Amino acid sequence: MGRVPNVTRADALTALRNPLAFIAARWTPEPRTVRRAALTALVMSVVIVVTGGAVRLTGSGLGCPTWPKCTEDSIHNTAEMGIHGYIEFGNRLLTYVLCAAVGWAIIAARSEKPRRRSLTRLGWAQFWIVMGNAVLGGIVVLVGLNPYTVAAHFLLSSALIAVATVMWQRTREGDGEPRPLVGKAVQQLVWCLVAASVLLIAVGTVVTGAGPHAGDSSDVERMPLDWETVSKLHAVLAWIVVTLTFALWFVLKAVDAPKGPSRRTRELFVILLAQGAIGYVQYFTELPEVLVGLHMFGSCVMWIWVLRVLLSLRERPGVANEAPTAASEAGTLTRA
Length: 336
Known about the structure:
mainly alpha; 11 helices
């Protein structure tokens, strides 16, 4: 067992004033550690969506009928609340695991040398989204699972996944100026794909809000829309996303694009086909809970890969790897 370093009163005061700076001054993580921390935060952001879906699909949305406590007298569930109380309270506990994962990503990013402020900002952005979504989750419970607040809850979770995906990608890149790997027309096509995917996810929340899985066995308000009509609109948008992905794959082959964008697009196309198959099966089998849960997981994976396609269109080399010319040094100083 090694010696415990002496910590002076000044060190303790410094740690209290700025704990991140205190840790960063004494620890330098390996790049692999930073990447793993960012990936852990991304995985947990997907896990919290899937477990939140499980709460809804098991009718446990009001398993803890109040917030921030589980009951008026207890912060946790009680045996009298049954399985629904355990499911809902378990999902609340996972929020703390998510916070820990995001906190670990922030600490690792802040401690990396040289310091990369962009990574730290992305980590803090995740933290504030998690805090905002925790409050919104409490509002969802307090208003009795109002479908509009539930939809907003899911959309904010999708925003968290987006930021976590970008941070994970940035840990694998340098801080140099981004260099496009494809032409402007291809970039515009991908942005159309991103926009269509956002619309697809948003309409998917409307399908859920108008559908039969209200989240609780009580009389929960639903969106006053025809569920089948909205489902058909969702399917049309899904086919638009599939068509755009196939068109992008074809264009990338035609222009002999680098392997990265082509590989990510091919992977996205396969994910979309699998997601579409699950969607159609669940529609014609009257929405079994297991398939709906798989569809929610597939939605998260699809969204991550759409963003990976977007991020694969450019590369960001390390600043230190650039040619040490006077012009590049002047440009770096100007950007700083």
